Amino acid sequence: DISYIIRVCKVKVFISKSKEVFYMLKARNELATLKPYVPGKPIEDVMREFGLTEVIKLASNENPLGCSPVAKEAIIKHLDNLNLYPDGNCTSLKEKIAKLYSVSPSEVSLSSGSDEMCDLLSKTFLDHGDEVIMADITFPRYISTAVMMGAVPVIVPLKDFTFDIKGMADKVTDKTKLIWICNPNNPTGTMVPTSEIIELLDSVSEDVLVVLDEAYREFVTRDDYMMDSENLLSKYPNLVIMRTFSKAYGLAALRVGYILAASSIVTEIDKIRGPFNVNSLAQVAAYAALDDQDFIKKSYDVNKEGKEYIYKEFDAMNVPYAKSETNHIFFGVEKDAFSIFDALQRAGVIVRPMGAKHLRVSIGTMEQNKRFIELIKDML
Fold it and tell me: What's the pLDDT tens digit per position in 12-27?
């Protein structure tokens, strides 16, 4: 009954000459300019497409050492409980994180990776027309979640591939609701020192949320990085700190991250957070991984050695790059970046193109790094 469909479903109905009925639901207006996220090709697809037997993936900033064996053991022990729902409060993991950083469990919220936490923060705090300040080259989820909520992105260009904190502070208006600081930044790898973060927090009112995304903190080598940013929470109730188990901890497949923030912020997020948003395997693996700091130290050492090797080779080739405090390096090329990306992929090394003249390469094992350099030398 066509009239029934129109009345109940409120859809547009089109009747073709063959009398078949088609209908189209209209999405929210805010989604009109958004495009679905396009991930890089998985290793298996590249192998099939180009007839390769070995492929090195240096595109997604993953830990080349895998994850802690302690975390693997915890997962295996929990496999008999897959019929049970996970702890919706993530109680044990939340308490462990709280103890580690000397905060209250009520100041910790767990999420299915950083992507979900970006969504949760935007859905919780952004109204239509609010302004959201962010850099022009940074984690893309910030802008998509702002647009999704009908907020207005206010873009501040990077300076020397680094966040322009003063420029961001100058953009604050009475409409500003949230400021995103990816520190160190993805994809450029650069970082903002402690002093600049504090200056920003001092300059904005408490009704402006300042989010520090510290996904890559475990790889930082500089002394002026704020490794203990959680100590600022008592002074700045509008500060939110995001961290993840996907990078240094090597648990990207399980999707688990968390925020440290005032309990009032966590309470608001919990109102919309899914009841079982972090699965049981992710919870037990993350809990166990926190005990294996030797694995984190090894990941740090391997990353630092690989980074210095790639720097040395890039310098010898006169390849421009941004000094990185992460597990990836953002570099420039004179040729078309997409053609170089394609050529590398055909040769069995996957990197990430970043516009027409830049690419990002994740730091792998030394063997993987050497293979990448061997190929890029020929191509450049």
Answer: 444 444 455 555 788 8
